[in-house]
Specification:
The complex is a heterodimer of chains A (231) and B (308). Chain A is of the alpha+beta class. In chain A, 17% of the residues lie in helices and 28% in strands. Chain A has a 7-stranded mixed β-sheet, covered by helices on one side. Chain B has 308 residues and is mainly β. Helix content of chain B is 8%, strand content 30%. Chain B starts with 8 loop residues before the first strand and ends with a strand. Classes of the chains: A alpha+beta (231), B mainly beta (308). The interface between A and B is medium-sized, with 36 and 33 residues.
Chain lengths: 231, 308
């Protein structure tokens, strides 16, 4: 059950995106904060609001938290010490002590060669030309909603609705690293080769995830705005 | 060492034989779950910490996590080691002399000796700590192997060097206090696992009741990603069908009990995926999640409902 009554930004990927709410306007109409084991709580949010709520919790609770993990419609907060639902409830309504603590979302441009194996098939399934598919995909604004599947795999919301397709009936056993893909209402870049069932539209050489860069291993961060630039 | 200082590495021996799955572990990759990097680290955290304590290491030093057994290390230089979490007929071998030694104790090995760890009688994962720590490169702040993503060092194999950080003399002297510990025997009956309900208590009320109904057997498909369970009785009624399309992906934590459509519960281990789309009926306590590391396929568990 959604608990934050603000609306996620972005609609179906029509640029430009409206600004995120200011940190002191984190809404108070919450109802569902659930315990999740000894050290974690799960907070329900309106789809798309997860990264903003996660950034706010990080700003307010700081080092008390081990992890703040946004997902599509909820946020996991894990503490070093036993978790307290009351503490999280208070933190959600507290103003961030310093507005700078809640970072402005960055904009990241990912250059793409639209040479994906599934481009023609996607065009056929959605009733567009390949050129129209490419234009629709790279004209849209995306946002990093959450990470999952493998390290550095970012689920990007904002895929134009005419490109929404179920995953491939038969997943590939190996999708090459750098593949730019779509499935359901998401787009993503495979950070490394792995099995995968998404439709491949193109390829990027951008280094999506490099564990050797311990300060910032991932090109994308939760909440980032993303555009694909056609090469 | 995680201090960020440069520590010189000293090779003091070789791995002569490694078991089927020997990994380097520490406390894991802390704070990267938002990028889908799971924590990983030692499965039986209590045993891992005891091993470090017995050799006087800081509690976060890397150690070996040995699955099931046979492992042999040869030491060119003197070393201090400890094996915890399991029962095994460990010996220290010198030319012309073999001496039986204990698990859960500080072992001092002279130069030229062999540490021989046969297959464990009890338990599944043994923790072998060495004074100075197992030296290997850290990835995202951890020396642990993450078997799901492949981050971290490769599994240990025969021929690998035994390397430690040379600054161990700066560690406090080890305490040789015997730690009261008894490895669990199968005759102890089903292992009780305390289950905290949630986070979706009302949505999965029936499913939560269902996992509490009977005891379960550890499946051969269990690993560090999760312990998979099978019903102890083949005629266990299956719960009402779960529409997995109606359960969106949510973050997972270690110890979460997930029920996939095949109705075989999975208890998330240290290398669990950071998100999952199947119903979670509760979370096994951290203490009992450690105990799961030592269960072999076929051993029984039962869930005990507790509320905080």
């Amino acid at each position: 059950m959604p608990i934050f009554d603000w609306l996620p930004e972005g609609g179906e990927g029509t640029p430009p995106l409206p600004p995120l709410p200011a940190p002191d306007s984190v809404p108070t109409s919450m109802s569902a904060i659930s315990r999740y084991g000894e050290r974690s709580v799960l907070i329900d949010v309106v789809p798309g609001a997860g990264t903003a709520v996660a950034a706010h919790l990080r700003a307010v609770l700081g080092d008390r938290l081990v992890d703040v993990v946004p997902a599509g419609h909820c946020v996991l907060a894990t503490f070093h010490l036993p978790a307290s639902v009351t503490e999280v409830a208070k933190a959600l309504t507290a103003p961030a002590s310093n507005a700078d603590d809640v970072a402005e979302p960055r904009t990241v441009v990912v250059p793409v060669r639209y040479d994906g194996e599934d481009l023609a098939d996607v065009a056929k399934q959605v009733g567009l030309t390949t050129e129209e598919v490419i234009t629709a995909h790279c004209d849209a604004w995306y946002r990093v909603d959450f990470f999952g599947f493998v390290p550095g795999f970012a689920y990007l919301t904002g895929l134009p609705v005419q490109l929404h397709l179920a995953r491939r009936a038969t997943p590939r056993t190996r999708v090459p690293a750098g593949s730019v893909a779509i499935a359901a209402s998401y787009s993503a870049v495979y950070p490394r080769s792995s099995p995968g069932g998404w439709h491949l539209l193109g390829t990027t050489d951008a280094p999506m995830f490099d564990p050797a860069h311990a300060q910032r291993p991932s090109l994308l961060q939760p909440g980032d705005r993303v555009r694909f630039e056609r090469l | 060492m995680n201090s960020g200082q440069q520590w010189s590495v000293r090779e003091i021996g070789q791995v002569e034989m490694a078991g089927p799955h020997t990994l380097i572990v520490d406390e894991g990759r802390v704070g990267w779950a938002h990028l889908a990097v799971t924590r990983s680290g030692a499965y039986d955290r209590g045993a891992y910490q005891r091993a470090n304590r017995l050799v006087g290491n800081p509690p976060t030093e890397a150690a070996l996590e040995i699955l099931l057994g046979p492992t042999r290390l040869r030491f060119q230089a003197a070393a201090t080691v400890a094996l915890t979490g399991v029962q095994s007929a460990v010996t220290i071998q010198l030319p012309g002399a073999t001496r039986a030694v204990d698990c859960e104790s500080t072992l001092t090995l002279p130069a030229g000796s062999i540490l021989d760890v046969p297959q464990f009688h009890l338990g599944l994962r043994g923790y072998l700590a060495i004074r100075g720590g197992w030296a290997t490169t850290a990835t995202l702040g951890s020396r642990s192997t993450d078997t799901l993503s492949g981050l971290g060092p490769a599994p240990v194999k025969a021929g690998d060097p035994v390397a430690i950080y040379a600054n161990a003399s700066r560690f406090p002297q080890h305490d040789a206090n015997v730690v009261a510990f008894r490895a669990r025997a199968q005759t102890d009956g089903p292992l009780p696992l305390r289950l905290l309900p949630g986070p979706r208590t009302s949505r999965y009320f029936d499913l939560h009741e269902w996992v509490l109904r009977d005891h379960w057997l550890v499946s051969t498909a269990s690993n560090r990603i999760g312990v998979r369970l099978e019903p102890s009785q083949p005629d266990l009624p299956t719960p009402t069908a779960i529409d997995s399309n109606a359960t969106p992906s949510e973050p997972l934590v270690r110890g979460a009990v997930q029920v996939p459509p095949d109705c075989r519960p999975v208890i998330m281990g240290p290398d669990h995926p950071t998100t999952g789309g199947y119903p979670v009926v509760g979370v096994v306590t951290e203490h009992d999640s450690d105990a799961l590391a030592q269960l072999r396929p076929g051993e029984a568990v039962r869930f005990v409902d507790i509320r905080l």
